[in-house]
Automatic annotation (TrEMBL):
CDD domains: PBP1_SBP-like. This is Branched-chain amino acid ABC transporter substrate-binding protein. It comes from the Bacteria. Residues 33-391 form the Leucine-binding protein domain. The keyword ATP-binding does not apply. The keyword Signal applies. InterPro entries: BCAA_transport, Leu-bd, Peripla_BP_I, TAT_signal. Keywords: Signal. SUPFAM superfamilies: Periplasmic binding protein-like I (SSF53822).
Amino acid sequence: MNKLRRQALKWSAAALCALAACGAALAQPRPLPIKLALIESLSGPFANTGEAVYRNIVWATERVNARGGVKLPDAAGGARPLAVERYDSKGQNEEALSALRAAIDDGVRIIMQGNSSATAAVLIEAINKHNEREPGKRVLYLNYSAVDPILTNEKCSFWHFRFDAHADMRMAALMDVIREDRSVKSIYLIGQDYSFGQAVLREARRQLGSQRPDVAVVGDELHPVGRVKDFAPYAVKIKASGAQAVITGNWGNDLTLLVKAARDVGYEGRFYTFYGNALGAPAALGDAGVGKVVAVADWLPNVPGAPSEAFYQSFRERFPKPADDYVHMRMQLMVEALAQSLERAGSTDTVALARALEKASVQLSGQAGAMRAADHQFQQALVVGVMDKQGAPGVKFDVEGSGYGFRVVRQIAADKAVQPSSCQMQRF
């Protein structure tokens, strides 16, 4: 009996020890995630662009979290994960402002947005006012796609950082190819009627005038953003103009529907685009786009080199559906720069983080970029590609399962892609 009692006491002691250990483990504070607010069109005509961005940002944060998260002195266990929270702007500026207020109320201090320079402009203004009014709740704005040059020039802000090449930088890269294409003697300019679309056409005229004064601009047209369902009338005018090429900054459905209409009316000229390499445009053109659609980007899947190839293949493994094939290196570099800067700042303090971001310099899979402190414009290499069939020389990878990809025809180093800035920033 005594033996059984002694054994029971041993078991009880062991159980108590286990419970104590379990309690201690439960008492251990879990590291609070660093919340990132993604404000994008997640419904409406440009929902596909918002969802595509979301996949990119999530994949980038997964990479950071897989290596332990962001190491901060005050974090439980020494590190904190990144967490992306979605806010639907519905493609409307007022909705984006409401989303910004909701994100701030939810305790988010890092805001991300990019698809629409008009939205970016109102967010910058709202964040400037908020940060002045409530210094204890200051937020930073990371921009990955809004490329109106004004955002890092006249409207530059200490709280805003742009990780995409702006429209003038992209236009200069395209002009490198147009300058050598002596078969083009006439060009039609068409774009979306808002700040970015207007900036693209304005800069196209300026750069054509200085670099290809022999080229005639036979059309210069703006159309409503996201509201045109039938681009046939525009395509008919482009064809009737006799233009041998089109320059457009259109994106999303406004680009897909435009190139599809051009194909349907039999237009055979070239398209020089900012975003013709994804979101349905190659599939819409099919064989009609081979050798005729030119796109400028920060990176393309067929950029030569094993690191670039491995990067793209890892994205395809994470998102195997062809329709999800929309990967942008700049979004990955942006999140890497954020993680680096959080660790350099040693905290999530907004001012300290902004100062650290000004010094960000990152590399990933053979690509690199650095933030320019003077205007918060990220400096990176650019590439220009021409659409071709998968399997053609230089086209190992297609996009979106379309059977068409982009062969890289020009690589522009970061120091060659750089443009001057007129920013007069108020610093903190």
